[in-house]
Amino acid sequence: MDDVSRLILLQDLRDEREKHAGATEFFHAIKDSSERFVLRWLKLAKTKKTRKARILELAELSARGEKLNPEYALELLFRA
């Protein structure tokens, strides 16, 4: 997960953020540690369907000026 450590954004995440007004600006404003958490959460998606759903959720949250709740994200990871 070297790309996560270097905060390299996935193209599909960048594309989805651009569809939601304010999402890109909000995402750039969050702390690096929060961004790493989000990127790890995306990388750990086991299927394309899950990854796509997570990306959409992140874009929608960012557009509303909200961060991903770590407890919620961890719950989803361990539910599967």
From TrEMBL:
Q: Which domain of life is it from?
A: Bacteria
State one Pfam family annotation: OmdA
Question: What name is this protein filed under?
Answer: Bacteriocin-protection, YdeI or OmpD-Associated
Q: Which organism is it from?
A: Algoriphagus boritolerans DSM 17298 = JCM 18970
Upper lineage is:
Bacteria, Pseudomonadati, Bacteroidota, Cytophagia, Cytophagales
